[in-house]
Design a protein that fits this description.
With 181 residues, this protein is α+β, with helices and mostly antiparallel strands. It has a single domain, classed as 3-Layer(aba) Sandwich (Aminopeptidase). It contains 4 helices and 7 strands, in the order βααβββαβαββ. The relative contact order is 0.16.
C-alpha cells in the first residue's frame, strides 16, 4: 500500500493519538517492565489536537504518513526559539505494522527538508537510551550523539526507572540526500 507524507491537521488528532498509543505499547514494553502507561486516549487526543494546531505554535510542523485509509506515522519539527538555526525533531511514532518499511525514514526526511527550508543548520533529537530501534533510524541519517543526556520525558517512565534520553545532532548544511534512509 502506498504511503503519502503530508502535513498533519487538527482533524488527524484522534488517529494520531491511537497511533501514538499503539506504537508506544509495542515499542516501550521492551524498555519498561509493563505496558506503556501514558495518558488516556482522551487526554492524548487533546494533546495531539493542540500540537496539530499550527496557530498554537507556528514554529511547529507535524507530518503524518497516510495510507489513504489511516495514519501510520507521525513526527514533529520545531524551530528552537532561543536559536532559530536549530531545529528540533520529536514525537516520531510509526505503526508497528510499518516498522522496517521506510515510513520512519520518509517522515524524518520530510522533517529535515522542512528544517532546511526554514534555514535551520542543525537538527537535534532526544532518543530514549534503551530504544535501539530509534537510534538506528537516526544514525542511518548521519546523526551523531552529542553527549547530552536527560531524564526521559516519556509518561511511562517513573522517577524510579531512571531512564535517560540521549541527544542526537544532524548538520543540515550538507547536500546529502536522505533517499537511502
Amino acid at each position: 500500500m502506498s504511503v503519502t507524507i503530508r502535513r498533519g491537521t487538527p482533524a488527524d488528532a484522534s488517529s494520531v493519538a491511537r497511533l501514538h498509543q499503539c506504537s508506544a505499547d509495542a515499542g516501550f514494553t521492551r524498555i519498561f517492565a509493563s505496558t506503556y502507561c501514558g495518558a488516556g486516549q482522551g487526554a492524548m487526543t487533546a494533546e495531539w489536537s493542540a500540537l496539530l494546531t499550527r496557530e498554537h505554535d507556528p514554529s511547529r510542523t507535524t507530518f503524518v504518513a497516510d495510507t489513504g485509509v489511516r495514519v501510520v506515522g507521525v513526527i514533529t519539527a520545531t524551530v528552537d526559539r532561543a536559536d532559530p538555526a536549530v531545529g528540533r525533531v520529536a514525537r516520531l511514532y510509526v505503526d508497528p505494522e510499518y516498522w522496517n518499511s521506510r515510513v520512519a525514514g520518509n517522515l524524518l526526511s520530510a522533517c529535515i527538508s522542512h528544517l532546511r527550508e526554514v534555514n535551520c543548520h542543525v537538527a537535534r533529537a532526544w532518543v530514549m537510551a534503551p530504544n535501539v530501534r530509534a537510534q538506528r533510524v537516526v544514525e542511518r541519517l548521519g546523526a551523531r550523539r552529542t553527549g547530552g543526556r536527560q531524564p526521559t520525558c516519556e509518561g511511562a517512565a517513573s522517577a524510579d526507572a531512571q531512564i535517560e534520553d540521549v541527544e542526537y545532532e544532524l548538520l543540515l548544511d550538507s547536500s546529502r540526500t536522505l533517499s537511502e534512509v
